[in-house]
Design goal:
The chain has a 4-stranded antiparallel beta sheet with strand order 4-3-6-5. A two-stranded antiparallel ribbon has the order 1-2. The two termini are 34 Å apart. α1 crosses α3, α4 crosses α9 and α5 packs across α9. By secondary structure, it is α+β, with helices and mostly antiparallel strands. It contains 9 helices and 6 strands, in the order ββαααααβααβαββα.
Amino acid sequence: MGRFSTLLRATGLAVTVAMPVAAQDADTVLATVNGTEITIGHMIALQERLPEQYRSLPDETLYTGMLDQLIQQTALSQELEKDKTRALELGLENEMRAFLAGELLAKVGTADIAPEDIEAAYANQYGEAEPEQEFNASHILVQTEDEAKELVKLLADGSDFAELAKEKSTGPSGPGGGVLGWFGKGAMVPEFEAAVLSLEKGQVSEPVQTQFGWHVVKLNDVRSKEAPALDTVRGELEQQLRAKAIDDAINAITESAEVTRAEVEVDPSIIRDVELLSK
């Protein structure tokens, strides 16, 4: 919803109804627009669906803005009702279905998740998985294969890898001695990763070409990545469980519905023929 507007200011559109505080409930009428009632219930339902930046407004500001908005929407919708088209009727049916479906899935997706379900998801994802390896490597990046071969020769003759990286590397890690730090599988381009996986600790690769140029790679160390603590991934696991609950609800409800697809031949391009809605 955009900024609360004041599109309609005519005093004859709305009549506010004052009632004692003790008598107010969801059916309490706050205004009528050409005979159509706007109630406290309408206001509450609208407030529940507002973005947070609006819900955080002061109550008085929010109340006034929402009531103005509902009055305007009611008046505008009444105007269109005078000349309702087939396209509008079908659009309203689609919107109603989408709204109700969205409400159901929101209910499913926000339901409480049992602690044991989170623990089971954690055990399934991390408990029995093989420890993931991480690698610490350095590299020297140059433009040509000949330059890379010369680096390999210098290293074989006893040159210091870090010093050569500082002197020769064109990559951003050069000033730091070519050190890339720790990374897991999938973090590097495939050719570079393949080179790292082929090395033993302390070993230097032959020249490796990637999209960035030619590399000489040194594997500094390898370690097993520890599984994260449950509390650090609890939120992620909850989101996964909620997403699964939504998918399961969609599949179960759809499969249990009696669905009959009409056996008619239809040209798929017909969905773009908007003129059919006017016939």
